[in-house]
Design a protein that fits this description.
The chain is an alpha+beta fold. The protein is about 45% helix and about 15% strand. It has helices at about 20-30, 40-55, 65-85, 100-105, 105-125, 150-165, 195-210, 230-235, and strands at about 90-95, 130-135, 140-145, 165-170, 175, 180-185, 215-220. The radius of gyration is 23 Å and the shape is globular. It comes from Rubrivivax benzoatilyticus.
């Protein structure tokens, strides 16, 4: 074995030149200011990283959290609920017959409608709640520490606000749309998975669509329904020992 092969002395990496121009161009293109401070300093680099992290967490059309940020928040919230036992609600909202908006008024008008619905959602919840755009015309909201009695109130408030809203889409045209909303509370004290929680909320959304749209359906909480998979997670999980 030559000294060069020795794992204690791996070959030195070639010197790296930081390619920051692309990162700065990305910020400028997204309408974000350059980081403040001395370019190249540690503080400046940290601000640049913070801005890029923020950018990669946001949906470009609406400025809401994107699917990636939503998924991260969902995992954190599932964990928090299982430890604290606080009720947390997930709502999923989908614009009704949105394809018709695009088909009749064009894609740009559709984008305006998506932006307007996003603004209503963001405006209808508490600062601690996370509103995300998770698909084309589909949104999800995580409401931590949300009492069961408050769930229907907030979901219904969203539905009504969207119904009353008028979106101006140029050339003097104004559109009205509606949303269907489904929701489910995270099973308290039970280790669930993001996929199972989302699936429950989605089931309610599909039911709201099937029942005629422009309505809210929340999974009933009285029977504190726990699925077979969640029971398995509860009793199979080694981390269950953490709670004992
Ligand atoms: N303008 C615009 N349209 C989008 C965007 N993303 C997805 N869409 C469109 O959204 C439409 C979604 O249509 P569907 O999934 O058929 O649902 P829908 O017409 O809303 O009907 P229901 O959900 O059953 O009430 C499709 O036509 C997509 O092309 C976007 O970012 N902007």
């Amino acid at each position: 074995m030559t000294p060069l092969d020795c794992p204690r002395h791996p070959p030195a990496d070639p010197p790296v030149t930081l390619r920051l121009n692309e990162a700065l161009q990305l910020l400028a293109h997204s309408g974000l200011p350059e980081p403040t401070g001395e370019p190249g300093s540690v503080q400046w680099m940290q601000r640049l990283i913070d801005a890029l992290v923020d950018l990669s967490s946001r949906d470009a059309l609406t400025g809401l959290a994107n699917r990636r940020a939503f998924q991260l928040a969902l995992e954190r919230e599932i964990d928090r609920v299982a430890r604290s036992g606080e009720p947390a609600l997930m709502l999923v909202a989908d614009i009704d017959h949105f394809k018709l908006v695009n088909d009749r008024h064009g894609h740009a008008a559709g984008d305006e409608v998506i932006r307007a619905v996003a603004a209503v959602l963001a405006d209808s919840v508490r600062p601690m709640d996370l509103v995300a755009r998770v698909g084309g015309e589909e949104f999800a909201i995580i409401l931590p520490n949300c009492p069961h009695t408050f769930g229907l109130t907030v979901a219904e408030r969203i539905r009504q606000k969207v119904e009353r809203m008028s979106v101006s889409v140029g050339n003097g045209r104004a559109l009205s749309v509606s949303v269907s909303v489904g929701g489910a509370f995270a099973p308290q004290w039970v280790r669930s998975t993001p996929a199972l929680w989302l699936e429950r909320a989605d089931l309610q959304l599909y039911a709201a669509k099937a029942a005629g749209r422009n309505r809210v359906l929340l999974e009933p909480t009285a029977d504190s329904h726990v699925s077979h998979d969640e029971k398995r997670l509860l009793f199979d999980s080694t981390s269950f020992q953490d709670f004992l």
